[in-house]
Every structure is written in structure tokens, then in C-alpha cells.
Amino acid sequence: MSLRQAKSLIENWRVEYNTDRPHSALGYLTPAQFVQAHQKEGLLPLGSMSVPY
């Protein structure tokens, strides 16, 4: 596996983990679902979840 392929594989995992995978700390919601639910309730300002980890 080349370095470019490894970087691509890791980036794909990171995106899936931070957007599509449910998290127990978020009540088993995906991060996107959590943000949507809490923005509707006015609990999160827009852009508050913009820092990827």
C-alpha cells in the first residue's frame, strides 16, 4: 500500500466515523443527527460542531 492510498483510507475512515457512525456518547445518534436535533431545539449555535476530530 502506498502512502497516498493509506492517507485516502484513513481519511475515508475519519469521515465515516465523524459523520455516519452512531456514538454512545450522543445517545447512539450519528453526529449529524445529534447536531440536527439540538439545533432545532436551539441548544447548539450554528457552526458549533465544525471542528473535526
Automatic annotation (TrEMBL):
A Pfam family annotated for this UniProt entry: rve_3
Transmembrane segments: none
GO biological process terms, semicolon-separated: DNA integration
Limits of the Integrase catalytic domain: 2-31
InterPro entries: Integrase_cat-core, RNaseH-like_sf
Domain of life of the source: Bacteria
Protein's name in the database: Transposase, IS407 family
Natural source organism: Bordetella holmesii CDC-H585-BH
